[in-house]
Design goal:
Shape: globular
Order of helices and strands: HHHEHEEHEHEHHH
Distance between the termini: 16 Å
Oligomer: single chain
Protein name: SIS domain-containing protein
Organism: Nocardiopsis rhodophaea
Largest sheet: 5 strands, parallel
Number of helices: 9
């Protein structure tokens, strides 16, 4: 079983891929008159600055690993031809016998350096102290730190760029925010600036139809 299939099964993505893509398109339309779409596009641009495949390190909290986001970023990496977007999912306690790409432990963050990106996703009001310590270490060794959180001031202060979602007042959910970011990450610059209608439709159909199987 390939890396993508492992991620998709673990995250629960399968026939839901079509629903997710349609959900994102609707969400973008709803939020078009707000700063959220442009903000997530700016954030996604920072994700694409990761220099090498495997250099995008995605980590969550001990209680909640961002499987769903990892699978979407992996898909966007392939659709857009941007291998640096395929994330390395960093796990707190990889189980014995897990495939190599699902066995990346927290020690990987100690090796993070320039040109690599640590993408932290924390759905909690406050990230656990051990996570904050690892993030601080990675920043000190030269990694770019990006974060999605729900009002965590400590985590935001450590990040080079962060989007903080206030659950009580934001016009979207934390899951919706992740969908916007992953979708925007796969949008190449010429498509951001418009592109042809044929190009935009082609990419949308690729996303909603799910991954293509190559012979």
């Amino acid at each position: 079983m390939g890396n993508r299939e492992h991620l998709r099964r673990a995250s629960g993505i399968g026939h839901h891929g079509r629903v997710d893509a349609q959900h994102v398109e609707v969400l973008r339309e709803i939020l078009a008159s707000t700063p959220w779409v442009e903000r997530t596009e700016d954030f996604a641009r920072a994700l694409r600055r990761t220099r090498t495949p495997g250099g995008l390190l995605l980590v969550g909290t001990p209680e909640e690993e961002p499987w769903h986001l990892a699978a979407h970023l992996d898909d966007e990496s392939r659709y857009a031809g941007l291998p640096q977007l395929a994330p390395s999912l960093v796990r707190w306690q990889p189980p014995p016998g897990a495939p190599a790409h699902l066995s990346i432990g927290m020690e990987r963050l100690a090796e993070a350096g320039r040109g690599e990106t640590l993408f932290v996703v924390s759905p909690d009001e406050e990230a656990p102290v051990p996570l904050l310590e690892r993030v601080d270490d990675a920043r000190r060794t030269g990694a770019t730190v990006l974060a999605l959180d729900q009002g965590d001031r400590e985590l935001t202060s450590l990040a080079h760029d962060a989007i903080s979602l206030a659950p009580d007042s934001a016009p979207l959910t934390f899951e919706g925010l992740q969908h916007l970011v992953s979708s925007a990450a796969g949008q190449q610059e010429e498509r951001r600036k418009g592109g042809t209608l044929r190009e935009r439709l082609s990419r949308f159909l690729d996303v909603v139809s799910g991954p293509r199987v190559l012979d």
